[in-house]
Structure formats: C-alpha cells, structure tokens
Amino acid sequence: MKSLKLCGNILTSEGWRLGHIMLEGGRVVALNGASSEPATNQEPYILPGFIDLHVHGGGGADVMEGGAATQTMARMHARYGTTSLLATTMTAPRAELAAVLATLASEVRQRAPGCARILGVHLEGPYINPGKLGAQPSATALAALDEVLYYLELAPLRVVTLAPELAGHLGVIAQLAARGIRVQLGHTLGSYEDGVNALKQGATGFTHIFNAMTGLHHRAPGMVGAALAHAEYAELIPDLLHVHPGAIYTALRAIPKLYCVTDSTAAAGMPDGAYPLGSQTVLKCVNGVRLADGTLAGSTLTMDQALRNLVSLGLPLAEASHRLSRYAADYLGLTQRGRLAVGAWADLVVLDRQLMVQATYVEGEKI
What we know:
Elements: E1 3-12, E2 15-24, E3 27-35, E4 45-48, E5 50-55, E6 57-58, E7 61-62, H1 67-78, E8 82-89, H2 94-109, E9 117-124, H3 145-154, E10 157-162, H4 169-178, E11 182-185, H5 192-201, E12 205-206, H6 222-230, E13 233-236, H7 245-254, E14 257-260, E15 273-277, E16 280-285, E17 288-290, H8 303-312, H9 317-322, H10 326-332, E18 348-351, E19 357-362, E20 365-366
Parallel strand pairs: 1-4, 5-8, 8-9, 9-10, 10-11, 11-12, 13-14
Antiparallel strand pairs: 1-2, 2-3, 4-18, 6-7, 15-16, 16-17, 18-19, 19-20
Helix pairs in contact: 5-6
Binding site for Zn(2+): 124, 187, 208
Binding site for substrate: 135, 211-212, 219, 242, 296-298
Family: Belongs to the metallo-dependent hydrolases superfamily. NagA family.
C-alpha cells in the first residue's frame, strides 16, 4: 500500500516536532524529527484536522435537505481544514426530522470521496425552550425517551441539545447519558440551579455558550454561570460576532476543555445572498447570517478562520489547535482523532505561515 511523507512543523501529541509524518492506509504510521519551536523556521505547520461538532450547512447546502446536500456541506468544509464533523439538525416536526435522519444514516456509514468524515448527528432541538429559540423554528416539543430512541434507530445521535428546565427533561438526560449520548444544555431559559441539576443527571456540555441561554448576573448566575462554574466541556462560536472577545477570555479561563464550533449554515463559503436554514431563509451579508428581523442565525465561519481568530486573540497556536480538534475528539471519546500520533487516523491540515490552508488530509485522502 502506497505511503505518503509530509514534512514540516508537526503538532504531535507530545508537542511540536520539526520533521516528517508518514501516512499509510488512512493512518499515521510514523513520526520522526526533533523537538522544535515552530517560529524558528519557515516550514509549514501540520496540525490535527479540525473537528466541528455543530454544523448546519455550507457551500449552499443545508443539513435539513438530507443526503447529497450533506455531502456538499462536508466537501466544502474539508477545503478549510475540517476532517470530521457532526451534521446538525434544526428544530422541526417529528416526521420531517425522521425523514432527514434516515437519509443521514448512509452518509455516516460511508464517507464520500473528497468529504470530511460525518461522525454522526447533533440533534439541536426540538427539545428547546420556545422562549429562547434564537434562530430555531418554533416547532418545539418536550423530550420523550421513546421518541429520542426512535431517532437513534434512524441515525447515530452523538449529541442532543435540550433545555433542562422543561418538564421531564432531567429524567431524559439521565437516560440518554446512560446510553452514551452527549447531552448539551442550550436554547434555555433555565437558571443556574437548573444547569447544575442537569450536570448531576449526566449532561456533559453547553451549546454555543453565551448564546441562547440565560446570562451571568451576580445574584442570578444563570445557565452561563453554571457553565463557567462547573463545566469541563462547552462549545463556543469564535467568529467574533456571536461572542465578545472579553467573554471568550472568560470562558477560556473557566472551562478547561472549551472547544470551538462553527454553527455554520448553507451560506458558509458562498457569496452574499439568501440561503436555507431548515424551514427558514437566512440572509448572508459580509460575514454575518441573520433572519429577516436581524437575529443572528448561525454563521459563515470555517474552522481555519476560527483558528486565526483564536490566534489573533493571543492564544498560542498549539492551544488554539487543541480547541479545534483534540478537545472535541475527547468530548466524543474519539481516541484516534484530534491528535497526530502513530496509529491515529491520518486526519490533518497543512497550513502556511499565515495559517492559510494548503491541504487537508481526511483518513489519508488529500482534499
């Protein structure tokens, strides 16, 4: 089987190494070279491929269109360094969600050439608070275990977002956690206490922290306070529109494995204009995506731009990389992704000195 050798500043599991990495059969088979600070030479950076656990679309395609649209999305994001992702649904009636999930199952089983690996599904809604929809449609519902298990039969659910304060949801959290599904708290009007109780029941994260949840006040800490005080993991959208840099710094100090997502829509990678987001239409203008009333509606962010944004805020490149790859992999329990080590999947991104993508390798395939 043909092997491939890449040379540069490699961010390995042990730190930076100036040398070469060998890929074969979709895996990393060798790492050689000396420890080196990357600023001392002009070789490209070789980082673990980005892992995006919250993706609604890209390249003009929306996850809720199912099937081929998901491939279009995964192909577009791979061009920007994303090697694996979770296809993220929108709030919708049961029949519509079931139909979409049925089409996503085959995309998870078999990676299409030129595409990022679809690891599974992030079900964002319908189990959210109708008073904190954000850009979600209004087809909310209370979570019932039998319904979630029905969805699980249709496609591999890896993450479920819900509002913990709604009736019966604490019990559902415990049942889903027992089945290995990551439960995130989001689109919620819940209190600090609701968040803490949900974590005790097995919730493990927070969906786009700060956005679509109760904020921090010193006498009412809210869901943000629960995340900052108790979370090990939470996702954040670092497009510098959804969250002020000061709040990003706060979350970075408080949450050990804060990881970044794009929450990208069909408008990502596309010119300004109108695009689908589930049953709604969103408008892209410059780098923002909004509903007709001006509400932020996902993003146009790609993970390489997320990396550059973090570095612009002062994060060392290695730490920024961890927050775009390793921590997301750890969150899902993926020990062979999100890191460059012998035996791991050959998922990596090659960047020039300006942190622009030169190439993406997904399971050894050059994109």
